[in-house]
Every structure is written in C-alpha cells, then in structure tokens.
Amino acid sequence: MDLSWIITALLLLFVGLLIIYTIYMSAEHGVFRKLGIPALTPIPVFGNFLREMMTGPFMFQEELYRTYKTDKVYGYYSCKTPILFIRDLDMIRDIAVKHFGNFVNRREFQIDEPLDHMLSMLKDDHWKNVRNTVSPTFSTGKLRRMFHHISDSTRTLVEHLREQKISGKAVELKHLVSCYTMDVIASTGFSVQINSLQEKKSDFVIKAKEIMDAAGRVIFASFFLPFMNKQWGKIGISIFPKGPLDFFSFFVDDALKNRKEVTNNGLSKRNDFLQLLLESEREDIMDNDNMSKDEAQELKISTGRKPLSHTDIQGQAIIFLLAGYDTVSTVLSFTLFLLAQNPDCCSQLQREIDDKLGKRIPSYDNMQDLTYMDMCLNEAMRLYPPGFQLDRVCNEDIVIDGVLIPKGMTVSFPVFAIHRDPEIWPDPMRFDPERFSQANKSERHPYAHLPFGQGPRNCIGMRLALLEIKVALSAILQEMTPIICSETVLPIRLKFFQMVAKDGLWVKLTDRAN
Ligand code: HEM
C-alpha cells in the first residue's frame, strides 16, 4: 500500500477518534440549561476546567460564589462532569443529613486496589459496613489508650522546637508539624516508632510522601480519561506509584500476620488502629476482653456487620495515613502562625492553658475543657479548611427546596467560599476566635462552618485529629510563644491547588518568660 494512503487513513482515524472523544466529553454540557440552573458556559471537552485551573480552585470557588450571589445553587463543568454547587445552607443540611440516603456516595476517582477500598471511596452498603466497623476505633476508650503515642510524639516535637528556640533561628511550621503528624500516625496507626524530624530517610516517611504526591496524577486521569476508570489496572498501568503502595500493602500484611500470632499466643495486644482492624476480621469481637462494655455495646448497635475483607483492611490502613497526615499538620501549623500574628489571642490562650494545666504534661482529660483553644482552632479552620470543597453524588432524582437534582449529579459544598462570606463572617479575613463564643455561634446558621463536613459521612477521625492538635498546641504554648520575624511573609498566599502557604509559615519561637 502507498505510504500516503496509510498516512491519510491514520489521519482520518485520528480525526474520527477526536470527534468521538469530543462528543463523549461534551455530552452532558447542556444539563444545567435543561434544568434551568444558572451555570458557567462550558467549552467542548474541558467544560470550565481550564478556567478552574487558571484561577486555582480557591479563587474559582469564591468567584462563582460571588457571581451567583442571589442563587441557591449554580453549576459548572469539571471537564465532562457537571458539578452543582449548593450555596444555600439549609439545602446543604438537607443533602448531608435529612436526605443522606439519597446522597451516600462521593464523586468517583480513578484509583487502584487497595486504595479503592479506602472508606472515603466506598459506596452504599459496603461503605456503611466498613464505617460501622471502623467507627469504634475513635471512641473515647480507644483514644485514651492511644494517648501515650500522641504524648511521646509531642515530647519529641517540643524538644526539637526548644533547640530551635535556643538557636534563635526561624522555623517553617508546616514542615516541622508534618513530621509530628507523621510520627503520630505511625505510632497510633501501626505502633511504629519513628522520629521524622531526625530520620528523613525513614522508608515509612518516604513512601507515605510518594503516595500523597500522586494525587495530581489521579485527578488528571479521572478528569480527562474518565472512560478509562477501572481499566488502567487491566492494561497493567498503575496511576498511583506501585512501589509505595506495595510497600504499605506488605507492611500491613506483615503487621497483621504478627498480630495474629500474638493474639493466638495470648500475648498482650497493641493499642493501635491496625489491631482494631484485625479484630474486626473476627466475628467474636463482642466477647473481646480488650474492649470496655461501652465499646462492645457500640459495636452491637451496628448489627448485620460483616467482617472486613483483607483488601478492606489494607484500604483502611492507608486512608488512616492519607487522611490524617496533611489535614492535621495544616490546621496545627496555620493555628500557630495565626497566633503569632495575633499576640493578644496567643496570650489569652496561654492564660487558659496556665489555668487549666499549669506546667503539667497535657493529659487526655485536660483537653476536654480548653474552650478558648477550641475557639482558636475553629477560627483557623474557618480561614484555612483542609477539606475546602465537599461533594456527594445524587443516587435518585429528588426535589429539594424547589430544585430538581437529577440522578447521577455531583453536588458540591463550596466550604472555602462559605467560610469567607462577609455576610456570614463580617471582616472575614480577620482572625477573631470570638466568632465562636457560645453567644455568637447561636446567632449563626450551624452549617456555615463545615471543617469536618456534616452528617453520617462526616470526618470519622475528627476526635483523634483535635486531640493530636490540642496536645501539641498546649505543650508548645506552655513554654514558648510563636512570633512573626523577618522571615515571615505576609499576607499568606495559598499555593494554587493546596491548602499550603506558598511562602511557608515562618516564625521564631521565644521563651514564655520573655
Ligand atoms: C484537622 C484534621 C482533619 C480535618 C480538617 C478533616 C476533614 C475532613 C473532611 C472535611 C472530610 C469530608 C467530610 C464530608 O464529606 O462531610 C473528612 C473525611 C474523612 N476523614 Fe478527616 N479530617 C481531619 C483528620 C482526619 C484524621 C486524623 C483521620 C483518620 C485518622 C481522618 C479520616 C477521615 C476519613 C476516613 C474520612 C472519610 C469518611 C467517610 O467517607 O465515611 N480525618 N475529613
């Protein structure tokens, strides 16, 4: 055959595929017009994705929130997928709580096993079963038993900060605090003792970071090649880096094997997340001698619970790592930074700590009555919420408050924009913990503040997260004060796609005595 024929045939094939791809990617681009919902005008294939990428998700969310100021809901297209933003707080409540049964699942992303078994990704009854099984891990009794792990990691962090304070050097809070949260996860999750501040070469730290850095690739694959979802594995391509995933899968398998031997030999058990997952494999958990009556009761309530599969267990071990690392370090580092910027609030918080704790090492019980600390944390999470956009997928046509939401539609809560809405939060960029006093709170819509989401699918790790943050914050502020310094860059500018300060969160630490 003549070469020019081959080239023409290939060209035609390419153009044909391009047309099919364009039609496929743009097939749903008229949905908001049909529903009579205001929306951005999409361009073929990309929808409004390019605009979102150019503006960055934070600014994009705020821009739309301002544009559709008078609308309860409005839409945009994330490549192929229509996304319905819900601006109205009553509607958010209805979706997250009242009609939860119709909005159980989240938007699907392309991920490989065992990541597709992580709680955050599971659907319907599978999600319900795993959530019921994992929930007791975060009960008071369990958190109390994990507390010494948190205490130990806090001591390491404070010792390091003390050295920095003495040297008079500026510190970048996000980096330091991330090392702390990695240590806490390794110990509370897996009873692995690491010191990330010293051992930067620890396999655990390196592999965990590699997994977390792969998020961009997952988004790209899911948005532009949605028809390939679930197909990558079949053609031998792993969207997530295979090495670190295997590392964690083997790590979990190995730990589970050892634990089973310990249990079978009647030796004493570990108090960590992995141990609880292991126990969930067994159906005789109600008679487990390692549980308090309350905890056993909590489990009994979840009747019909099936034991978790091995892949389920691997998935939960990995989500424990992914969900608990960056979120906690973001909140803790921004809170310390905002306190450095607002010395009056910092002094008030230190007075509360002095009052409730004195110089004692923070204990589990002390953490429950630090009300001003709760107010500071809530205010920091208002300004810098790690979960800045939350979504649910509608599983049956439903009309809420006069708006028809069709089956399959992804609805999204614009948390970042709601948290900075001047009509809800006057002078929104000002750090003002008083916004969370009982009196001020009672005057506001309860769904105006959503740092941990809402309803049955909210953050399962909230209590552990707050405990970690409060213990570290108390121990640091008991003996030192963060202050802004010549290295501090203000105002805070966020990275394009992450809740991370572009220029770092630089402060100096001074002695309380000064
Ligand atoms: C300050 C730290 C944290 C923040 C701000 C945070 C925030 C969130 C948010 C906003 C959601 C989505 C909720 C929704 O859709 O309504 C979520 C879900 C989740 N979080 Fe957290 N989180 C934090 C720490 C943690 C920790 C420490 C863990 C576990 C160790 C954890 C585990 C999870 C899991 C498993 C889900 C998915 C729950 C489900 O789908 O049922 N989070 N988190």
Automatic annotation (TrEMBL):
GO molecular function: heme binding; iron ion binding; oxidoreductase activity, acting on paired donors, with incorporation or reduction of molecular oxygen; steroid hydroxylase activity
UniProt keyword Transmembrane helix, yes or no: yes
Secretion signal span: none
Keyword vocabulary terms for this entry: Endoplasmic reticulum, Heme, Iron, Membrane, Metal-binding, Microsome, Monooxygenase, Oxidoreductase, Transmembrane, Transmembrane helix
Membrane-spanning parts: 6-24
Residues the entry annotates as binding heme: 459
Alphabetized CDD domains for the sequence: CYP3A-like (cd11055)
GO CC annotations on file: endoplasmic reticulum membrane
Pfam families noted in UniProt: p450
Bilayer topology: Peripheral membrane protein
InterPro entries named in the record: Cyt_P450, Cyt_P450_CS, Cyt_P450_E_grp-IV, Cyt_P450_sf, Cytochrome_P450_3A
Cofactor: heme
UniProt cross-references to SUPFAM superfamilies, sorted A to Z: Cytochrome P450 (SSF48264)
Main location as per UniProt: endoplasmic reticulum
Keyword Acetylation belongs to the record: no
PANTHER family membership: CYTOCHROME P450 FAMILY 3 (PTHR24302), FATTY-ACID PEROXYGENASE (PTHR24302:SF15)
Function, in words: Cytochromes P450 are a group of heme-thiolate monooxygenases. They oxidize a variety of structurally unrelated compounds, including steroids, fatty acids, and xenobiotics.
Family: Belongs to the cytochrome P450 family.
Annotated protein name in UniProt: Cytochrome P450
